[in-house]
Structures are given as structure tokens and as C-alpha cells.
Amino acid sequence: MTMIYSIDVQITAPVNDTEVSDRVADAIRNIFPEAEIESHPGELLAECHTMEHFSERLHEQAILDTARGAFFSNQEDDTFTFELKKQAAFRGVINFAVGSGGELGDIHVRVTVNEPDVETFIDHIAPPTQDGQPMDSTGSR
Q1: What is the C-alpha separation between 96 and 28, in angstroms, rounded?
Q2: CATH of the domain spanning 6-131
Q3: What are the sequence ranges of the domains in the chain?
Q4: Which residue, 2, 17, 92, 115, shows the most beta carbons closer than 10 Å to its own?
Q5: CA distances (Å), 23 to each of 11, 14, 29, 95, 140, in order?
Q6: Distance in angstroms (rounded) separating the CA atoms of residues 7 and 79
Q7: What is the gyration radius of the CA atoms in the chain, in angstroms?
């Protein structure tokens, strides 16, 4: 049975005086190609309703455990948030920001899961691993 996921992804990124807003928009699109981006003074706001490309990048970069840690440590009710390094995103690389913000500011992502629930959705985009390999829902690789 195929699971239907209903999510709202809100993305915000500061645009500093030293930056070109198109390049910041490219950083967002490299990670979230489906995002619809609006420009506002000093920041970009984007929204999308899928994280499939993001999930593919997590698998390709083999950072599923890191992603799960970031998601679950910033989960509240039906929402989880995380920060991404803007410079890495511009290169199409997912690099979670931890600690104090980077000098260019980080990309802030807020994911609200409407269906089914946060834990199931996180398991879908960043499944648990065993010996570094993703496990399916039955616990096998």
C-alpha cells in the first residue's frame, strides 16, 4: 500500500547586503526544487509540499542518522524544524547547521506534517539505519 503524505514546508533564508538574492534562491532550489519562492526585503520565503528530492540527497550523502537526529531534536507536536548551511545548499549539498548561525545566515526549514504523523514521515524521508544501511518498515535492509 502506498502512503499518502500531506506536508507543508516553509523555508526562510536571510539575504544579506553582500549577497545576490538570485543566488540565495538557487541555494533553496538546489535542495527544494519544487519550492515557490517569494522575495521580501532582507529575506526569501519559500513553500513546497514535498521533500522527495531532499530525501534523495540524504540517501546519496549517507547522512540519514544525522538528519533523524536533527529532525527529532527539533520536533514539537506535528512540526519539526532544522537549519541548513546556505553555502553548502548553493552547491546542492545538505549540511545541517548546529550551534550559532553562520556568517551568511542559515536556511530555516519548518515542516508541518498533516498526514499521517511526524514519526512516520521522518521514517519515510530518513529511515532508521543498521550498520549504515537504511532499514525498511519491517526492520530489514
Answers
A1: 14
A2: 3.30.1440.10
A3: 6-131
A4: 92
A5: 15, 12, 10, 17, 41
A6: 10
A7: 15
